[in-house]
Amino acid sequence: MSDISLTQRDSQGEARVGDFFALLKPRVMSLVVFTALVGLVVAPGEMHPLTALASIFFIALGGGASGALNMWYDADIDKVMRRTATRPIPMGRVTEGDALGFGLLLSVLSVVMLTLTANLFAGLFLAFTIFFYVAVYTIWLKRRTPQNIVIGGAAGAFPPMIGWACATGGVSVESIAMFLLIFLWTPPHFWSLALFMKDDYSRAGVPMLTVTHGRKATRRHIFGYALALAPVAVGLGFTPIGGPVYLVTAIVLNALFILGAWRLMRRSEETAQADGYGAERKFFWFSLLYLFLHFAALLAERGLLALGF
């Protein structure tokens, strides 16, 4: 009997650790980690591998802290959205107070440790990013304006700049260009999600563009942002961190991205409903691949440079 009780306690402990890990939004964190890593690696100068690894870990911790604080504040709307209803707080596995305390603790820890590991500027930049995501996007913009994801998307675009700052102690044209790539990519990425998740946002009272302006207008906005994104993405190839591999990758990906956005804009709502928003879902997933391959190409350019090519 005692063995059974011990097993039950152990499994409950593991589940609780898993619930707190879920608060960090690990899928979102993976994008934060990757883009921050690229920003650090392609920056001029050298960092000790252990220092670089520790810096990326603390950036990831800061990103996770932002996710936990976001889930704390959005607990009420997460309960009514299908996409978020199984998160730890709506399911009652973590209390709102615990999520708040956890997020604040990780915020302080990540900022202090990044400052000690890398430099003061990088630490302050991480602190500003957490503040921007939680206070500016989650608390102020998300429930007030259909431009929430446009302005708030800056928070997700800061990680490569933080990685760059870890290596250099500042910002540059290259790091700003990486920021702009993610900043302009964010609206079409999330609006394509909103096209097939509109009912969730309506039910939660979140003024996403699909709710306030409709799907037809959202499709036009996606195409417009795809056009604005292309020159920024390709232009990054002409900076010191770009090169032929990146340029070819960017040209092909942006041609496909614009074509996909054009096809979305031309689709009628009846056609979209008939196939279960299949094209919208494909565009959403392609947008993830789009961003990953751009940053992977930057890594490839850095690798070729290290090999003397």
Architecture blueprint of SSEs:
Blueprint: H1 2-23, H2 26-42, H3 49-73, H4 75-78, H5 96-117, H6 120-141, H7 148-152, H8 154-157, H9 159-168, H10 173-196, H11 198-204, H12 209-212, H13 214-235, H14 244-266, H15 269-274, H16 278-306
Helix pairs in contact: 2-3, 2-9, 2-16, 3-5, 3-6, 3-9, 5-6, 6-9, 9-10, 10-13, 10-16, 13-14, 14-16
User: What share of the residues does DSSP label as strand, in percent?
Assistant: under 5%
CATH 4th-level superfamily of the largest domain:
UbiA prenyltransferase
Distance between the termini: 67 Å
Q: How many individual β-strands?
A: 0
CATH structural class of the largest domain: Mainly Alpha
Low-confidence stretches: 1-15
Estimate the helix proportion, in percent.
Answer: over 70%
CATH architecture of the largest domain: Orthogonal Bundle
Largest sheet: none
CATH topology of the largest domain: Tetracycline Repressor, domain 2
Instruction: Write down the domain tally.
Output: 2
Provide the structure class.
mainly alpha
For the CA atoms, what is the radius of gyration?
21 Å
Q: In DSSP terms, counting alpha (H) and pi (I) runs of 4 or more, how many helices?
A: 16
Basic shape: flat
Compute the average pLDDT: 91
Q: Write the H/E string, N to C.
A: HHHHHHHHHHHHHHHH
